[in-house]
Write a structure and sequence with these properties.
The chain is mainly α and 436 residues long. The chain is 78% helix and 0% strand. It contains 22 helices and no strands. The radius of gyration is 22 Å and the shape is globular.
Length: 436
Amino acid sequence: MSNLEIGLWSFPGLLALIFLRVPIGLAMFVTGLVGLYYVTDGNTVALSRLKNETYSTFSSYSLSIVPMFLLMGHFATLGGMSQALFRAAEGFLGHRKGGVAMAAIGACAGFGAICGSSLATAATMGRVALPELRRYGYDGGFSTATLAAGGTLGILIPPSVVLVIYAILTEQNIAKLFLAAVLPGVIAAVGYVIAISIYVRLNPTSAGVREAIPMAQRFRQLGAVWPVLLVFVAVVGGIYGGIFTPTEGAAVGALGTGLIALVNGGLTGRTLIESFMVTAKSSAMIFFIVLGAAIYNGFLALTQVPQEMSAWVVDQGFAPVTVLIVILIFYLLLGCVMDSLSMILLTIPIFFPVIMVLDFGMTPEQVAIWFGILTLIVVEVGLITPPVGMNLFVINAMDKATPMLQTYRAVLYFVGSDILRVAILVAFPAITLFLI
C-alpha cells in the first residue's frame, strides 16, 4: 500500500474512532501516530515527530490568546455584563412583537464582543434571558432556538477563539481576520432579528408583548453597558490601532473585565480561583485537540494527500465557486455530528490548500481571509443544525420542559437566515473584505 493510500484510508479510520466516542483530539493523535509508524516503517520518526510537534505547537506565542479570551468571558459573566446587555436591549426592543427575543439576540451580539466562545455565550445568555422569555409567554421551542442561534454570534463577532485557531493553522494575520468578521457578524445579528420577526408573524401565539418602559429608564439601562463598550474598544481598537498585539489585547481584555467584575462585587477569592480552574480545563482541552490535529496533519503532509487533492481538483477543471460551494455544503453536513473547533482542525489542512490554488480573482491573502470567514459561518451553522447542534443541547439542558423537537422546528428559521447570509457573502466577497 502506497503512502497516499495509507493517508486516504486514515479518514475512515479517524471517523470510526470519533463515532465510537473517542475524544476528537485523542482520535487524531492516535491516527496520526499510527499513520506515521506505517509511512516511515518504524517508530523512530513517529516518536521524534511527537517530541518536536509538541514543543513547536505549545511554544506558539499566538496560542496564548486562547486562555486569555476564555478568562475574559468568565470575568465578563461575573461582572454582570450579560445582564446589563440584555436589560439595555430589552428596554428598547422588548415592547415590540417578538421584542424580548430580539433583545436576546442583541445581548448575545454584545456579549460575543467580549467572549470568544459560542457555547459560553449561549449558556450565559440562556441563564439571563430564558426566564424573561418564559415570563412574557414565549413558546419554549422558540425561546431555546433563539438563544441557541444567538450563542453562535460568540465565535463570529470578534474576538473569536476559532478564528485565532484558523489564523494559526493558515498563518494569517489575526487582526485582519477579526476586522473581516465585523460586517458578517452584524449581518448575522440583523438576519436573526428578521427571522424572529417572520416567525412571530407566522406564529402569532408564540410570543407575548411586554409593556414599554419610560425613555429615561431605557437610557439608564443603556448607560449600564459602558463597561462592555470600554473593553471592546480597548481590545479590538487597540489591536487594529497597532497599540498592542492580539495576544497583548487579550491580556488587556482579561484584566479589564476582571477589574470590572471586582468593582461590581462579582469577583471574589473563590470565584477568581473557579475562573482560573475553568479556563485551565477548557484551555487544556483545546490545546490537546490542537496537538492531535498537528500530529495528524503532519502525517497527512508526509502522505501528500493535501497536495494530491489540490492537483486533482485543478485537473478536473471545476469552477472555483463550485468547489467552494461543495466544501461549504460538506461543512454544513459535518456540523451535524461534530463541534466547531474539531471541524476546523480536521479539515482546514485539507481544504485550505485546495482553495488557495483556485483563481477567485483576488490576492492569496484576500482569499484566505474570505474563506476563513465563510468557514467560520458554516461551522457556526453546524452548532444549531439538527440533530447534533451543540448549542441546541446546551440551551435545552436549561429548559428540560421543552421537547427537543420543538427547538428543532423553530431553529430552522435561523438556519435559513444563515444559509442566505452565506450565499450573499459567497456572491459578494467585498462585504467581507470591505474593512480591510
